[in-house]
Amino acid sequence: MPNTVAIHFVDVCLPDYLLDHHNRENERLLAVPACGQEENEIFEAIMDELNSCDFGLPDDISWDAIREAARDVAMGMDLPMAETEGEDSCGDLVYAYFYITWE
């Protein structure tokens, strides 16, 4: 069973500008739309993304550990409002990227 699970903030950007976006052993990249969210909304977006896809996480990672890691990374975080091509509303292509890692 993995001893530690962590989620790390990477960047907020258009997908074309994300560097080093390869999943390595014991890590997966996840993206959530960046739309001016505050910490509770960021936590919910991370959990929604993890629940919506098969990220190939080991079966023995507990969801309690994942929730705790998501809360830790979202704590105190505010995502900027995405502005693309002069628009004042949320852009669909701007994402906040996170790595989930386990050992």
Q: How would you sum up this structure, described in words?
A:
This protein has 103 residues and is α+β, with helices and mostly antiparallel strands. The chain has one domain. Helices cover 25% and strands 23% of the residues. It contains two helices and three strands; from the N terminus they run E-E-H-H-E. It has a three-stranded antiparallel β-sheet with strand order 1-3-2, with helices on one face. The protein is globular, with a radius of gyration of 14 Å. The chain starts with a strand and ends with a strand. 22% of the residues are buried.
Chain-wise SSE layout:
Elements: E1 5-13, E2 27-33, H1 39-52, H2 63-74, E3 95-102
Antiparallel strand pairs: 1-3, 2-3
Name some characteristics of this structure.
3 strands; three-stranded antiparallel β-sheet; single chain; 103 residues; globular; alpha+beta
Give me the number of helical elements: 2
The radius of gyration is 14 Å
Secondary-structure-derived class: alpha+beta
Terminal Cα span: 9 Å
- Elements, N to C (H/E): EEHHE
Mean pLDDT rating: 82
Number of strands: 3
Number of domains: 1
| Global shape | globular
Strand content: 15-25%
| Main beta sheet strand tally, sense and closure | 3 strands, antiparallel
Helix content: 25-40%
